[in-house]
């Protein structure tokens, strides 16, 4: 065993590992310690690229409010996927929950005259219930969540399209509810600091608040610690008294709630509930954001902040390329390449960490 | 005798734990058949037996990880049902599992305190008190003389022996009533192994914690244990005091062939010589 003087905690920082010497090694060490740093760099480079490519239009407040809106939508779902992926599970049904919850919200408000604020809560509770069902099927009946949630995805998608034969329904508009949840679009005459200007960014700001909260939950609470333990070593976690089944179910419930919440915000923005608003594509975009953000599918590690950065990258690729005149479909090529590269980087950073062992 | 001048346990010492007629099968595999063990307060009980004899299964039933098919556990005079390891830990039963149950992606200090984290309240939020856990872990590991790098490093960076040391330290940190150690010395070097044996010996000297120790090395059994239970094919075939059984006798039993009859016969022979103080429930 390496002998290290440990008289003063904190001062002794030797980890029993070789000190990084070259610049590259040091950079990889920084990357492994601050996963988010690598993706932040990617996000920045992309933003600069599109800013230059679009003759300074990309970072104009108007365009940015569109990109950040998408970032908010992907990010809110992605951060929930991150939590689940840390436990070693995944939820593919989020795309359907995203459509169903606001559909129910709008039907309640139209049919029973319930205020949107109340029916929105009901919609989110429906999401929680969906998560509970996903979780229980996964942990009690030992069905892999990949399968469970493919099943519930189709089931819920079927339910929402069958209600009114796939027809979108017009949602009521109630202020300040709609303003607070992103009804306003940024217009060139707006000041960012005006109420109208600020509310144009609310879909993103809500996600930002929630992502920061989830980062706190993940890194500074018992629940977060047990979430990591569950995915890192499920048998060991159980042996030491972590209630791994519960931890998984709670994270499924969070995923359901966040997917429903994202759907509610989306519907509020457009004052319309579309049964096809979510779908499989949204599920995959959110998972892409989580993966690009630095979370691997192996369980045991992941970053909440990274999911928001990943969401920004996905939204930027989608919007930026279109803005520069590319076909909308081309952006998928870049997105696909970005996911593969992100996975390679994730794995390499992990291996670099392992190689520094003594 | 290699008792290091620790006086033998008073025969009147109360029993703190009884596992009565525990049976357990895993599908077609019968792991335990009607196994009964008794542990007295402050006693160090060795549980020995071949690979696959059922030692780990027995202690995992005690720790709440497995549930017995039949049989009862009486702990501190009351029948108990541990639904999960959380229950058992809450009642003062700590276990070092054979697989150590360490979480590779967490730091040493988080591993030390997982399941009994310290919190602080900030703006009404119950957050982990990482600084406190870090300092307590560092101080405690130092006080045990366990050589590890910084408590901040994740446990996947540790050597096998260091991992084992951390797992043992975690189990004794909370001053348990019963301590269960499943091959705690397996990955330790000579010096570190002696160190952990020393820790067990210290606990034994104080007679405040009762210990079940699973080991394969009979030297170690005779060095730190008061009594020995030999588990063979899911059954206890010998229950003897170490002060009245010699290592040679034990080895004779073990080598008496794998047949249950042969072992039982050899065990009976040994028991005949130790009848007077036998504590056994055979
Ligand atoms: N979870 C399980 N599922 C199925 N069979 C199991 C399980 N755990 C243990 N067994 C079986 O029960 C029997 C007893 O195993 P156990 O691990 O208790 O032995 P052991 O005495 O601890 O052995 P070792 O000295 O190798 O650690 C073995 O045949 C093993 O294969
Ligand atoms: Mg074992």
Strand and helix layout:
The complex is a heterodimer of chains A (358) and B (282).
Chain A: H1 23-33, H2 35-53, H3 61-86, H4 94-112, H5 116-140, H6 145-163, E1 169-170, H7 177-180, H8 195-199, H9 202-220, H10 222-232, H11 234-239, H12 244-270, E2 272-273, H13 279-292, H14 304-323, H15 330-355
Antiparallel strand pairs in A: 1-2
Helix pairs in contact in A: 1-2, 1-15, 2-14, 3-9, 3-10, 3-12, 3-13, 3-14, 4-5, 4-6, 4-12, 4-13, 5-6, 5-12, 9-10, 9-14, 10-12, 13-14, 13-15, 14-15
Chain B: E1 15-26, E2 29-40, E3 44-48, H1 55-62, E4 70-75, E5 78-80, H2 85-90, E6 93-96, H3 108-113, E7 119-122, E8 125-128, H4 130-143, H5 160-173, E9 178-182, H6 190-206, E10 210-214, H7 218-224, E11 227-232, E12 235-241, H8 247-255, H9 260-274
Helix pairs in contact in B: 8-9
The structure holds adenosine-5'-triphosphate and magnesium ion.
Kindly describe this structure.
- Chain A has helices spanning 23-33, 35-53, 61-86, 94-112, 116-140, 145-163, 177-180, 195-199, 202-220, 222-232, 234-239, 244-270, 279-292, 304-323, 330-355; strands at 169-170, 272-273.
- Chain A is mainly α and 358 residues long.
- Chain A has one domain (35-43, 56-351): ABC transporter involved in vitamin B12 uptake, BtuC (Orthogonal Bundle).
- Chain A has a two-stranded antiparallel ribbon with strand order 1-2.
- The longest helix of chain A is centred in the C-terminal third of the chain and has 27 residues, at 244-270.
- The N and C termini of chain A lie close together (10 Å).
- Mean pLDDT of chain A is 85; it is low at 1-18.
- Chain B has one domain (2-104, 178-277): 3-Layer(aba) Sandwich (Rossmann fold), CATH 3.40.50.
- The two termini of chain B are 26 Å apart.
- In chain B, strands 6-9-10-3-11-12 form a six-stranded mixed sheet, with helices on both faces. In chain B, strands 2-1-4-5 form a four-stranded antiparallel sheet, with helices on one face. A two-stranded antiparallel sheet of chain B has the order 7-8.
- Chain B has 282 residues and is α/β, with parallel strands linked by helices.
- The interface between A and B is large, with 38 and 47 residues.
- Residues 55-56, 98, 182 of chain B line the site of magnesium ion.
- Magnesium ion is lined by residues 55-56, 98, 182 of chain B.
